């Protein structure tokens, strides 16, 4: 850890060379910030760290975490400060240099930062992790490479994975991977004329692929089940009031499929796919909940009388 003046000089030199931090501001140990004049903190950071803390079966000090596409390092650095062992992988030198600066400022010894393409992820190289973070990354990958990436992510995940990602709110188009069908929308990441150097400087876009595929929410759930996750959940709290409707926080658990002793025939039955659209119930007397709806309607009518 360096002096306050030395830390600010290093920060300013890094900004002069690579440009400013563009993610959420991070407080530095001397009381300054990675972004002067910007209040450190982000609702998304609070949500993700709380989710990891709440769902980890072991204390964070005994938890091994992988942060894929770690950007400027805030989630990895925060978890390392909380005591976890972290490996952060980032494909752009512009980003990982900023992450290294902040990690060194805090003197973090349990944080390892690697410059690498996350699509090359292999368990043989890194081992397994209790928690895998995939934040702001999945929607930058195109189809079908996004499925190959999810397969590799599942291979290194021994506990649960947290995704913070955009989803397609429309039905989009149909894509296939073998017999499996998904829906979503293709989005442009880079101009076809963009040079390799320009792509490297576009830190809020894909590493190099010109297009990306956004799953619908249902298709994302199906994809996670297809690659081996046994249950999938969506996080709503801690709240993120400014979060857009097409951005979701999803938790996928890598467990074991259970066999029900009271319904053994279910063990041999394949899971149904999550539907893109759920059927709306009709108001018929034999449907559960109809009596409740009738009571609500009668109460409203009585109130107008």
Model description:
- It contains nine helices and ten strands.
- The protein has a single domain (4-268), classed as Rossmann fold (3-Layer(aba) Sandwich), CATH 3.40.50.150.
- The strands form two sheets. Strands 3-2-1-4-5-10-9 form a seven-stranded mixed beta sheet, with helices on both faces. The chain has a three-stranded antiparallel beta sheet with strand order 6-7-8.
- Helix 1 (4-18) packs antiparallel against helix 4.
- 32% of the residues lie in helices and 21% in strands.
- The protein is globular.
- The chain has helices spanning 4-18, 43-55, 74-81, 93-106, 123-126, 145-156, 196-201, 217-226, 290-304, and strands spanning 64-68, 85-90, 111-115, 129-135, 157-166, 173-177, 180-188, 211-215, 231-234, 247-253.
- The protein is an alpha/beta fold and 305 residues long.
- The mean pLDDT is 90.
Compact description:
This protein is α/β, with parallel strands linked by helices and 305 residues long. Helix 1 runs antiparallel to helix 4.
Mean pLDDT: 90
Gap from first CA to last CA: 74 Å
Number of helices: 9
Sketch the major β-sheet: 7 strands, mixed
* SSE succession: HHEHEHEHEHEEEHEHEEH
When the domains are counted, the total is: 1
CATH-level-2 architecture: 3-Layer(aba) Sandwich
State which percent range the strand residues make up.
15-25%
- Predict the CATH topology: Rossmann fold
- Residues in helix, %: 25-40%
Can you say what the CATH homologous superfamily is?
Vaccinia Virus protein VP39
Write down the oligomeric state.
Answer: single chain
* Helix and strand composition category: alpha/beta
Q: Which CATH C-level class is it?
A: Alpha Beta
Q: If you compute it from the alpha carbons, what radius of gyration comes out, rounded to the nearest whole angstrom?
A: 23 Å
Shape: globular
Strand order of the largest sheet: 3-2-1-4-5-10-9
What is the number of E strands? 10
